[in-house]
Amino acid sequence: MGWWLYLTLVVAAAHAQETCLSVNENPYLLFGSKTAYLFANNNVPVNRIHDVPGCQPIAFWLAYRHGASNPTESEIPELKKLSDFKNNILNNYRSGNFRNTNQRICASDVNLISQWEWNSRINSTFAGNLTSEGYMTTQQQAQSWKQRYPGLLTDNPHDYLIKYVDDEISGSTFRAFTEGIFRTQAENYDFPKEMNEKKLKPYKSCEKWKNEVEDNNDTLTQKRIFQSKQEFREMITNVSLRLGFNYDIHPTLVYNMYQMCRYNKAWDISSVSPWCSVFTREDLKRYEYAEDLETFYKYGYASDLSPKVGCSMLNDMVAFLTKHAEHEQPQQPKAQIQLTDSEMLLMLLRTMGTNQDPAPLTGDNYHTNTAQNRKWSTSLLAPYNANFAAVLYKCTSNGNFQIKDRYQVLFLHNEKPVVLEGCRVGLCDWSLVIQRFGELANKCDLQFCNGAKSVQSWGIVALVTLVLLKVAL
């Protein structure tokens, strides 16, 4: 930082109150799909063992999202613009260009921003790749799973079937996960693998879902309604004032600062992100809710197509567990692992009926109890390194008097037992699993992807209903 900026900050601090946002002792750390796993899951005991009295685990199924990653190729040019924007902020402080001196960020926050530089190693070659933090966290989680289930996650590579897409980030996740299990280079082992993107990420090739949901302008209606609210527009104004601008910064530029904030915190969980110091706690919560509105209408309960796509992952899980439950002799592989993404994890949860709120999330109900205490929280459901496990247990007839079925399934989402009706802290009778999910899994048919267009989301249905009411009046 130059002497002129230092002098300006010292003088300014002596004459005005300032807002220091980087020194918050309890910062808000939930950033939607770019939340670090530790922030989303900080109350899970390390290496917690899930013992079921009278039962032994015999099969392990896991869906696993990759860890912290670099920005995508399309994001990089936008985020690099923050380098020039940073200089504009510093110029504002040098010139004392403030409408409201009581609202500007403090000297230490400006100093943080002045020290920020774009990492030249983040370029198109490494776009979207795992970061060192993402790689290390994946290794650690694999080690943790192995310590919990040593009889299933063994040192024999043929006890595994690992399914992943043939791209850089999936390949890196595969290497990190297997190195975590074997504590050595994955290339030294001949793993059974499957690499079929149409099965692992069917939404990418499902034309019906893409046409009616992803590319449908109505899908983001509720998100746009929320972002058009006065309080959201005032947030843009307040951020602009805080940085010394006499006009409202373009919303895209404010969002780029938010993007950089959450990327930085995912890459280095122990350091303060300079760009996070731009936002208040409420600012960050609003951006988090805006993303929840998008994921809710794309992958969640607002679309009838989500479970039709997400059933492919449920089908894989049920088929794997069934093979072990229907044979007396041990089956191979003991562990089946799908390396996936946040989209498919959210669709799986939607298909299984978990985390459903009593009312849909909308752009108008942000301040209601439903929204403020929502179960559909992308930060908690699908952060970096998110996971969903199903562990099949074989029980003795008199080993546990609470156990009815010989086989039990323990469902764990981000290492926590899943709340399912009729189950005991995530532990379900096999007969209940088949009753609830068997037909849904068996009837899973992605042939619908080539079908005709139809109305599928609450947003669209609500719009049609509103039109009809107006006509009636």
The CATH class? Alpha Beta
* Secondary structure: number of strands: 8
- Helix and strand succession? HHEHHHHEHEHHHHHHHEHHHEEEEHH
For the largest beta-sheet, the strand count, sense and barrel status come to: 8 strands, mixed
Looking at the overall shape, the CATH architecture is: 3-Layer(aba) Sandwich
The overall average pLDDT, rounded, is 88
How would you classify the helix and strand content by structural class? alpha/beta
Shape verdict: globular
% residues in beta strands:
5-15%
Whole-Å distance between the termini? 65 Å
Question: What's the arrangement of secondary structure elements?
Answer:
Layout: H1 3-15, H2 37-40, E1 55-65, H3 76-80, H4 82-95, H5 107-115, H6 132-148, E2 160-163, H7 168-182, E3 193-194, H8 197-200, H9 207-214, H10 221-227, H11 230-242, H12 251-267, H13 281-298, H14 306-325, E4 335-340, H15 342-352, H16 369-372, H17 378-381, E5 387-395, E6 407-413, E7 416-417, E8 427-429, H18 430-442, H19 458-472
Helix pairs in contact: 1-4, 6-7, 10-13, 14-15, 14-18
What can you tell me about this protein's structure?
This protein is α/β, with parallel strands linked by helices and about 475 residues long. It has a single domain, classed as Phosphoglycerate mutase-like (Rossmann fold, 3-Layer(aba) Sandwich). The chain is built from 19 helices and eight strands. Strands 1, 2, 3, 4, 5, 6, 7 and 8 form an eight-stranded mixed sheet that branches. The chain is globular, with a radius of gyration of 25 Å. Residues about 5-15 and about 450-473 have low confidence and may be disordered.
